[in-house]
Amino acid sequence: TGLFEVVKRSQGIMYDVGGELRYIRDAIRNDAVGSVGANIGGEYEVGYYYRIDPLNFRKALAGNLVGGLTYNNIKNFEYHVRAKLGAQKRFEMGDQFLTTYSFYDFVSKRTVFESRWQPYYDRTIGDAYFTNRVKYEFGFNHDYNDWRRFLNFFNRLEIIPQYKLLVAAEKELIGPTEHDPRNLEANLRLDVDGKEGVPDGEIDSVYDDIGDNLERALDARILAEEYRDNNVTYFLNVPILRVNYKIAENTRFQFGVQGLRFIDIITPESNGFFLTTLAQIVSEATYSGHSVTFYLGARWWDSNYDVNTRDPVLKTGSRFDRRGWQFFAQIYSGQ
After folding, report:
1. 3-state secondary structure of 72
2. Contact (CB, 8 A) for 91 and 59
3. Which residues pair with 6 in a beta bridge?
4. Model pLDDT for residues 161-219, shown as the tens digit of each residue
5. Residue 186: how many CA atoms within 13 Å on its side-chain side?
6. Rounded Cα–Cα distance for residues 180 and 190 (Å)
7. Cα–Cα distances in Å, from 98 out to 33, 55, 66, 82, 95?
8. Residue 208: how many CA atoms within 13 Å on its side-chain side?
9. Against a cut of 0.85, is the pTM above it?
C-alpha cells in the first residue's frame, strides 16, 4: 500500500495518488442479519433473514489505484473529486466447499437455506468509480445593537447546500456470472402459480420464478444474486440541503433534504427519484467521563420509480412507489 499526498495551502489545493495490492485468504465466515422488501397486496413488507457470508475471497488478489483532488481556496467553498480503478482475481481451487445460501421467502415467512458442494470458481472482476462533490457553507456574523439586533438571531444558523455525482461500474470479465442470466432460457419466468396457490409475480419469493420447483428456483436465485453483485453500472445525482441551528451550547436543531436521482444501466427498472427529509434535535453531554449524545427526530421518505415493474430474475425494481415516515429517539454513549 502506498499513497503520495501533496498539500498547497496557499493555493487551497490538496491532491493524492496511490495504490494497494492485497493477497487474501479467508475461511472464516462473518454472517449477519439482512433485510429484504416485497410488495404484497399493495403494501410494502420487510422480512429479516440470516445472511450467510459466501466467502468470496477464499483465495484472491485485489488491487486498486486511487486519486483525489480537493480545492478550497474560496471562502466557505469546497470542491472534491476522487477516482478509483480496481480489479480482483479469485483463483480457482480444486477442492469442493460446502456453501450455504439463504433467502427469505415471503410465502412461508421464513428463511430458506440451501447447501451444496461446489468449487471456488476462477473469476476476474474489474471496477471503476468516480465521485464529484461541491459544497458551500452560508453563515452569518451580525453584531447589531440597534433596532436590527433581532437579526443577530441568524448568527446561530448555518446553511450548507451540496451536490454529489457518482459514477460506478463493475464487471465480471471471467467467471460463471460474466453473462447476463436474464438471457438464459432456464431463468425466464414461467406462467405458473407459486407455492400455496399464490399467483406467479404477485410477491417476491424463492418460488416466484418457477412455481413449486424449489431447487430450480434456488439455482436461478443464486445465479442472479451473484450476477447482481459482480456486475453494476449506475449514476447517482444527489442534491443535498443541510440546515443547522444552535439552540444552546450543546444542543442543535438539524434539518436536511436529500434528493437522489438513480440511473441504472443494467437494471433500468430500478431507476427513479428518491427524496429523504430529516429533522432532529441533537444534544451532547458528558457524564462520568463518558460522552453521551441524544437524537430525537423524524425521517420521511418518498420513492418514485420511473416504471413500476419488477425484474423476475434479478429481483430488482418495484411494482409500487413507496412513501413513509419514522419517528426515532436514539442515545449513543462512548469514551
Report:
1. coil
2. yes
3. 15
4. 999 999 999 999 998 888 888 776 554 444 334 444 444 444 455 555 444 566 666 77
5. 13
6. 18
7. 20, 11, 36, 40, 10
8. 22
9. no
Residue 227, H or E segment: helix 214-230
- Local structure of 111: helix, strand or coil: strand
3-state secondary structure of 335: coil
- Within 175-321, strands assigned E span 232-248, 251-264, 272-287, 290-305, 309-310, 317-318
DSSP secondary structure letter of residue 92:
P
* Contact of 15 with 6, CB cutoff 8 Å: yes
Helix, coil or strand: residue 308: coil
Q: Which three cell numbers stand for residue 33?
A: 442479519
The runs of H, that is alpha helices, within 31-176 are none
Neighbouring residues of 272: CB distance < 8 A, sequence distance ≥ 6: 262, 303, 304, 305, 306
Nearest CA to 238 out of 110, 114, 115, 133 is that of: 133
Write out pLDDT tens, residues 189-198: 443 344 444 4
What is the amino acid identity at position 286?
T
